[in-house]
Amino acid sequence: MTDKPIFSDDFVNGIDSAWTWLREDPALWRLDNGGLEICVQPGTAGTAINALLFDAPDRKAGDFSVEVTVHNHTLPTIQYEQAGITLYVDDLPVFKLVKELIDGDLYIIPGKKAMPTQSVRLRLLVKSNSWEAQYRQEGATEFSTADSGDLPVGEKTQVSLQCYNGPPNSDHWIRFEDLRITKLP
Question: Do the Cβ atoms of 102 and 114 come closer than 8 Å?
Answer without folding.
Answer: no
